Amino acid sequence: MYAAKALIQNKTGLHARPASIFVAEAGKYLSNIQIRRVGEENTANAKSIVMLMSLALEMGTEVEIIAEGEDEIEAVTGLVQLINSKFGED
Amino acid sequence: MHYTVTPVSPGIAIGRVKTYQPCNHLKGKQAIPLAKVEDELQRYDIVRARADEELSALSKKIAKSDPDTAKIFNAQRDILNDQVLVQEIRTTIKKDLVSLQKAVQDVYDKYIALLSGSANKLIAQRASDLADVKKSLVKFCGNFKGLDLSNLPAETILVAQELFPSDTASLNFENVVAIVTEEGGVTSHTGIIARSIGIPAVVWGDALKILADEDEVAVDAIAGILVHKPDNGEKKSFFSLRRKWIKEREENARYRKGALLTKDGKRINIGVNIGSASEAELASLDFADGSGLFRTEFLFLGKDSMPNEEEQFQKYRMVLERAKGKPVTLRTLDIGGDKELPYLPLPRENNPFLGVRGIRLCFEHPELFLTQLRAAYRASVFGKLEIMFPMVSSIDDVRRCLDYAKQARNELYRENIEFNSKVPLGIMIEVPSIALMAEEAADLVDFASIGTNDLCQYLTASDRLDARLNTYYQSYHPALFRCIKFVVKAFSSAGKMVGICGELGGEPKAAVLLFGLGINKLSMNADALPSVKRMLSKITLEKSRRIAERILSMQTAEEIMQYLDATLACQLNHTN
């Protein structure tokens, strides 16, 4: 298992277009990937747009990405980088 | 049988019912034997592939004309193929031994409930995307004999609970003579589409309970009457009404072109309202004296991020150039707590109409306001621009607006960017408190435009979107006309123009009255233009003044409307 934290910095948060991009990126990895708000138990499957939306992750939220599987390190690093890139906003 | 219905797009039609019920309720057996599980799982793959094809085709079809809706269809494809949902539907079929349709409905309903319960309004809204996807899956499940909207028989009266963008995108309107929906209103998707195409449409809550396929129905979407199974006499009279309506529509079309002169040769400025800057809308500028209301909200809504100065500048410039030297009155952002902007959190308000909206929101976000003003001023060298400010309620508001405009000018000046420093600046009169200060306001600004919808709403203290308040929201309330008279008097003695940009100006008989009250600039939706022009061309200033004078002494809206109908009967009747 591998995990890392990231801060959502784009204005839209993780819905609409950024959410689609995020889910598409997560789908590229073989590992089981979960995402949650730091400090909360609820995790959501990072490959599911509906579950991701249900977490209502807004700008300024700190999230943790947890992956388990053969490419767990690449998965977490890739997704954290994507969040840090602000999805190309501003 | 006669029923009372709510018109949302005017017209008269007679035809046969086709019901469209995509969100049908589950009928028949839901349980399946173990041996059928594999079939059902395979069917899911096929159904999903078909739904995916349909969404992808719809998205491509409208990608150019309506890119925002195209994006919605793409987002729906993500939902359709969502791993968690797919897995859960498969598991439900396997474990619970239920049909594909039952599994789809149960799983989708669960997630629709989950999202619509979200405290985040943007996410709650996405629940409707799930509902749309569910509908599309159910449609392909096969238990449902779907109505092919792209291939309807001639003279169809389409009856549905509501039509979604996914429905109207595939709908072939050629054979549809009228639309009856159970939900919606003048501003709903169906209403807007129907009016833009010129198809009569009504809303009637009992439509699907009473109307069945192939029933004959006559619709009067002007008076708000629906006749179910009309007898021969009724049919005859509806056919003649329909002929008359079609003739009138054609005659109106002739009045579209050319400048408007009244019967005695007085010139009235008739503009069109612009709300999306679509090609169709801009084309109507050719038949009008510019635009008295260029709404800019469309640039800000449905976006992930705030439109920057350059983006706004390009749009404003495009509209001004398209107007070919005719005046365009740009209204600065008029938005409030009833709207959603992903990039600008607006707190939920108990009374959005009485909240931080219009200019108040701009005062709270000066960067947003200045960006828009700078973009507008930069565009001002490409046409004849006017700028007006919505929702001002005091002289302080007026001064602040003018200060911001000055600041925008100063910035551009310092940066050596070209702009027209003489752009006329005006205010919307829609809050009663500024109407009563019209004399003082007239000294500060170059013009005023009366937003009759909001002014009426605030004068009568009735939410104009709440159907229960229809009896109180009286658009012919005598107080409204007295208020308009007061504003006109104040502005004309200061030598300044007052226009009307509310819906009232688009009603022919009201237009006469407003002209009589001293208004000589009306701006309206493009579809109202021909009938207003036609009416005013049959009127003299003298007659309209007499009418206005009489009205100002009347006590009720009812009295005013009856008087206008009676005194203008001759002009309202197209045979004259």
How would you sum up this structure in a few lines?
The complex is a heterodimer of chains A (90) and B (576). Chain A is α+β, with helices and mostly antiparallel strands.
Would you mind describing this structure in some detail?
The complex is a heterodimer of chains A (90) and B (576). Chain A is an alpha+beta fold and 90 residues long. Chain A has a single domain, classed as Histidine-containing Protein, Chain: A. Helices cover 33% and strands 23% of the residues of chain A. With 576 residues, chain B is α/β, with parallel strands linked by helices. Chain B has 23 helices and 16 strands. In chain B, the strands form 2 sheets. In chain B, strands 1-8-7-3-4-5-6-2 form an 8-stranded mixed beta sheet. In chain B, strand 9, helix 10 and strand 10 form a beta-alpha-beta unit. Chain B is globular and about 85 Å long. The chains are: A alpha+beta (90), B alpha/beta (576). Chains A and B meet through helix 1 and helix 2 of A and helix 2, helix 3, helix 4 and helix 5 of B.
Low-confidence stretches of chain B: none
Q: How many beta-strand runs of chain B?
A: 16
End-to-end separation of chain A: 33 Å
Beta-strand content estimate of chain B: 5-15%
Q: What percentage of residues of chain B falls in helices of 4 or more residues?
A: 40-55%
Name of the CATH class of the largest domain in chain B: Alpha Beta
What is the number of beta strands of chain A? 4
Q: Sketch the topology of chain A as an H/E string, one letter per element.
A: EHEEHEH
CATH top level assignment of chain A: Alpha Beta
Shape of chain A: globular
Kindly identify the CATH topology of chain A: Histidine-containing Protein, Chain: A
